[in-house]
Amino acid sequence: MDQYGPLCGMTEDELADLAELFRMFGDSSRIRILFSLFSGEKNVTELCESVGMQQSAVSHQLRLLKTAGLVRARRDGKAMYYALADDHVETILAMGREHIEEE
């Protein structure tokens, strides 16, 4: 076993990708957007109302979350609808919440 313990076998690129993934969870506005999507798919207007943010800020955060693979988008006419990319996103957030509630 090397110095990384359970991370043995991970390349520097994989470690950097993991750090980038966790960086996405480092902003409370992104967390609010992700939690809002727990209840299902929403368009930008619905997300703005749900999280109490301006459209430009929500769109910016959605772009980052989509690039990170945490949300997916679907176009319906002129509207874009966003949803969690997969169940892993909800699991990560639920585990984080459980961890802070234990303290």
Describe the structure.
- The protein has one domain: Orthogonal Bundle (Arc Repressor Mutant, subunit A).
- By secondary structure, the chain is of the alpha+beta class.
- It has 5 helices and 3 strands, in the order ααβααββα.
- The radius of gyration is 16 Å and the shape is globular.
CATH fold title: Arc Repressor Mutant, subunit A
Task: Choose one word for the global shape.
Answer: globular
Query: Strand arrangement, largest sheet?
Result: 1-3-2
Quickly count the domains. Answer: 1
What is the C-alpha radius of gyration, as a whole number of Å? 16 Å
Distance between the termini: 31 Å
Low-confidence stretches: none
Q: Could you estimate the helical fraction of the residues in percent?
A: 55-70%
CATH superfamily, called what?
A: Winged helix-like DNA-binding domain superfamily/Winged helix DNA-binding domain
- Biggest β-sheet strands, sense, barrel: 3 strands, antiparallel
Question: Secondary-structure element order, as H and E?
Answer: HHEHHEEH
Report the CATH architecture.
Orthogonal Bundle
The assembly state of the depicted protein chains is single chain
Q: Quick one: CATH class? A: Mainly Alpha
Q: Proportion of β residues? A: 5-15%
Give a short overview.
The protein is α+β, with helices and mostly antiparallel strands and 103 residues long.
Outline the fold blueprint.
Elements: H1 12-24, H2 28-36, E1 42-43, H3 44-51, H4 55-67, E2 71-76, E3 79-84, H5 87-102
Features:
103 residues; alpha+beta; three-stranded antiparallel β-sheet; 5 helices; 57% helix
